Amino acid sequence: MTTSAAAPARDTLEHACRAVGLDADGAEPVRLAENQIWRLPGSRVVVRIARAGQSPATHREVRVARWLAENGLPAVRLADVAQPVEADGRPVTFWEELPPHEQGSHIDVALLLRQLHDLPPPDLELGNLDPFVRVAERLQAATTLSGADRAWLQGLYQDLATAWTDRPAGRPDCAVHGDAWPGNLIRTTNGPLMIDLERFSLGPPEWDLVSTAVRARTTGAVTASEYDEFCAAYGYDVTEWPGYTVFAAARELRMVTYAAQHAAVHPDWASQAQHRVDCLRGRHGSRPWNWRGIM
User: Could you give the domains of the chain?
Assistant: First the structure.
C-alpha cells in the first residue's frame, strides 16, 4: 500500500469516526480495495468503507446484522454506534473486531446455512435475490476476451435469465446469504461465524447450496467425499433438484465474468479468465475443470 493510496482512504476513515465519536488515531489498514477495511486498535472496532453508490446495500447489511443478532445466529456483530454513516460520499459501517480465527470449512457452511434457512422470513426489507448481479457490467469490462467470446457469454446470460424465471419449483423462499462458501465465514474457538453479509436477500435456499455443489462439480475445490459431508450436515443434496443445472450455470457465469472483469486490470489473471470461458464453451472436456482462484 503506497502513501498516496492510503491518504484519501484515511481521510474518509477519520471523517466517519468523528461522526460516531470514535478515535481513528493509530488505525491500521486491513484491506484497501473497492471496499476499504480499517482496524481501530484502541476500541477493537473494524471500520468498513463501501464504495460510493452502495448506501442502500449498506443499510440492508446493517438491518441483516441486527436481525441475525436478535435471532442468535452466529455472525459478525455491529459495534455499538449509530450507523451506517456517510463520509465523503461513501457509506461506512462499524463492526466488533473478530476474535482469533481461521477460515471455516464446508461443514461449517452447511451448519450455518441450515440455521439461517430454518429462520422465519425476516420482517424487514431485504430485496429479492438477483443471481446475475453485476454480470452485465462485468461483461462490458471484460476487455481481455475476444468479441466472439463476449457475445457468446452475453447470449448465455440472456438464456439463463429466461431459464431462471421459468425454473422448477423448489423450497420456500427465505433469507439467503447469497455468497455462501468457506471464504465468507470463519471458525473461532466457539465455533463458526458468518461474515460478509452484503449479499443477503430473500430468495430460494437452493442458491446458497449451489455454491458448494459447483465447487465440487465444476471447479474441483471440494472433493466428492467433502461434498457428501456437506449434504449430510445440511440434510439435503441440491444436485438432485431439477432446477440445479440452471442455478449452477448462473453461478458459473458469475465466476467467469468476475475473473474476466478483473483480468482487464490484472493481466496475470487473463489466462485463468480465458480458461474459464473455454471450459464453458466446451473446449476443455467435461466437469470438474479445476479452476484456480484469482485473488
Answer: 3-97 (3.30.200.20), 103-280 (3.90.1200.10)
